[in-house]
Amino acid sequence: MERLTKGEHDVLALLGAGLSNAEIGAELFLMEGTVKDHMNAILSKLGVRNRVEAAIAAHEAGLTGRP
After folding, report:
1. Distance (Å, rounded) from C-alpha 63 to C-alpha 33?
2. If you compute the radius of gyration of the chain from its CA atoms, what whole number of angstroms results?
3. Calpha distance 50→42 (Å, rounded)
4. Structural domain contains residue 1
5. Three-state secondary-structure class, residue 54
6. Is 31 a member of any domain?
7. Prediction pTM value
8. What is the per-residue pLDDT across 13-61, written as a single tens digit (0 to 9) for each?
């Protein structure tokens, strides 16, 4: 998780809490497109294929709540 930027880390934590892209954007005051950009970077950096695998990685790392 140390490879992630602060923004990516925050998005991943909220993904781990079960929020949608729109909800994550509202929580972090980001446009939904920015959240999608962060999600693409997260998937690439973590080497996972989809948001479900990213959420599992967030849970395994203890990232399951508000940043």
Report:
1. 22
2. 10
3. 10
4. no
5. helix
6. yes
7. 0.92
8. 999 999 999 999 999 999 999 999 999 999 999 999 999 999 999 999 9
Using alpha carbons, list the distances in angstroms from residue 14 to 40, 52: 15, 13
Does residue 17 lie in a domain region? yes
Q: How far apart are CA 64 and CA 37, in angstroms?
A: 20
Terminal Cα-to-Cα distance of the chain (whole angstroms): 14
**Residue whose structure tokens are 């950009």:** 37
Give how many domains the chain has, as a whole number.
1
Read off the CATH number of the domain in which 35 is found. 1.10.10.10
The residue with tokens 């909800």 is 23
Domain assignment of residue 26, given as a range: 6-60
Q: Which residue has the tokens 């690439």?
A: 44
